[in-house]
Amino acid sequence: MQLIKPDINLDFVGKRKLALIVSVALIVIGMASLLVRGPNYGIDFAGGTLVQVQFAQATDASAIKKAIAVLDLGNPVVQSFGDNQNEFLIRVEQASGELKGLSVQIQDALEQTYEKGNIDIRRVEMVGPQVGKDLRNKGLKALFYAMLGLLVYISWRFEFRFAVGAIIALVHDVLITLGAFSLSGREIDLPIIAAFLAIIGYSLNDTIIVYDRIRENLGKHNKESFIFVINRSINETLSRTLLTSGTTLLVVLALFVLGGGVIHNFAFAMLIGILVGTYSSIFVASPVLIFWQQKVAARSK
Questions:
Q1: How far is it, in rounded angstroms, from Cα 204 to Cα 49?
Q2: 253-256: long-range contacts (C-beta < 8 A, 24 or more apart)?
Q3: What CA–CA distance (Å, rounded) separates 48 from 93?
């Protein structure tokens, strides 16, 4: 099945400077937001206690915070959860050794304001601050070692210049997705690290398909310019790229819309990652090869 004819000839390479401007702008905006706001770590990384509460009657975060103020929990964060307007997360920075006791205390405090029986404690989680820090460090190491392993693998399978192009594209994808999380105020926790690793794998798969065609066409069109070969290869794999990305995007979109609050952030990360990963396979990974070739040609003169 082909959505696009294989002999199509869109000038993707000719738009590489515009794509560079767009990519840099997105990364700068995202990183600026991250620097200003700071990373919004979830309970897995920041440590503390998380209580998910569902109310039978309408309420809001400020009213809930006022109701639990008698417990002296420091400065708890209360936010709505999922699509249910009457479901909230209460996050306390200090971890509590008596997890069950804390949930009972919160329920008792809430029942002083809300009718008894209208409050349902649905989930309670606790992570110590040291454990959270350790998980955060291990998550970052997982991303780093994944990138390092891919650099070695692609250098072995193709050439070092191909590996550099792929790694730059992967870093580009992760940074833009991370920036989207910062701009939208979403939490970063262990499932998001898993999403980043999935994004790396997905984006790399797209890039490898294009790289395989480039290597094939370098032998087939050896009399043509390197820029022609790159653009031809992108066009020849365009139908496959759009079909794969489109079908995967539909699944992730269904998870994002219908998956519920627990999986919502993970699905959001995958949604952004697939879109950006498809873009980077066309406008980042391959143009890096052209830049590399031009630099080598300039040095040899």
A1: 37
A2: none
A3: 4
How far apart CA 140 and CA 243 sit, in angstroms, is 32
Separation CA 58–CA 140 (nearest Å): 40
User: Domain 48-127, CATH 3.30.70.3400 — does that match?
Assistant: yes
- Please count the other Cβ atoms lying within 10 Å of the Cβ belonging to residue 283: 21
Average pLDDT of adjacent 10-residue blocks, the chain of 301 residues = 68 88 94 88 74 81 80 75 75 59 76 77 74 77 84 83 88 92 86 88 87 86 83 87 87 85 85 92 88 77 64
State pTM to two decimals. Answer: 0.79
CATH class name, domain 13-42+131-300? mainly alpha
Residues 6+ apart with CB under 8 A from 8: 235, 238
pLDDT at 176: 94
Domain ranges of the chain: 13-42+131-300, 48-127
Residue 145 tokens, joined? 């070692």
Strand order across the beta sheet in which 119-127 lies: 77-80, 87-92, 48-55, 119-127
pLDDT of residue 94: 59
